[in-house]
Amino acid sequence: MRIIAGIYKGFKLQTFTNNNIRPTPGKVREALFSIIGAGIMEAEFLDLFAGTGAVGIEAISRGAKEVTFVEIDKKAIELIKKNLKKIRQNGVFDIVKIDCLKAIELLNLNQKKFDIIFLDPPYHQKCISTVMQRIEKSNILRETGLIVAQHPAHIDVKEDYKKLSVVKKKKYGSNKITILKKS
Predict the structure, then answer these.
(1) Calpha distance 174→154 (Å, rounded)
(2) Which of 36, 38, 17 is nearest to 28 (CA)?
(3) Which residues 6+ apart lie within 8 Å of 1 measured at CB?
(4) What is the pLDDT of residue 29?
(5) Which of 156, 38, 153, 122 is nearest to 180 (CA)?
(6) Which pLDDT does position 105 carry in this prediction?
């Protein structure tokens, strides 16, 4: 798995040898950042369910001001740290070892705001609606911010949120990206 673009383009990231954590495929990462475009420059980026950290590291490579990685798995956090060390990055990121829903509460309590929130929960958890509702109730998304959700193609993100609206959906093989913004 390699960084696709930006200052770390071509850097090879370590990944897991088992199937417990599913890294976001390069094709999907490329599409995601193509959709975001120049909005990544100087953005505060939240990578929920960070896994290997590939999406957050890609955001750093493409000019994000700061990336917060949220991950509960100890081995995944070790891998994120190894990958950040490999690109010699220190200082524009934060790693939070906590459950995603508790992380949203904590970030909200600390008045953190993000321009882009990326979430890619484990497909077997089927928790995307719960996470979206928690984000919607919090104040962690800036008024002009975007939520980018990666999920199985056969599952739709509901569109009946009070404060969020779907602006784009795109399918990539067995994956789908749904982008939402504040209504």
Answers:
(1) 8
(2) 36
(3) 12, 13, 15, 23, 26, 52, 54
(4) 78
(5) 156
(6) 96
Tell me the mean pLDDT per 10 residues along the chain, length 183.
Answer: 85 72 68 85 94 91 94 92 80 88 96 95 74 93 93 80 89 88 88
pLDDT of residue 1: 79
In this prediction the pTM is 0.90
32-48 per-residue burial string, b: 16 or more CB within 10 A, e: under 16: bbeebeeebeebbbbbb
H-helix or E-strand spanning residue 145: strand 141-152
What tokens does 170 get?
């795109």
Give the separation between CA 173 and CA 169, rounded to whole angstroms: 13
Give whole-number Cα distances, 108 to 43, 99, 112, 142, 167, in Å.
18, 14, 6, 12, 24
Pairing of strands 93-97, 66-71: parallel
Contact (Cβ atoms closer than 8 angstroms) between residue 76 and residue 21: yes
Question: Which CATH class, in words, describes the domain spanning 26-182?
Answer: alpha beta
Nearest-10 Cα torsion for 155, 158, 164, 167: 60
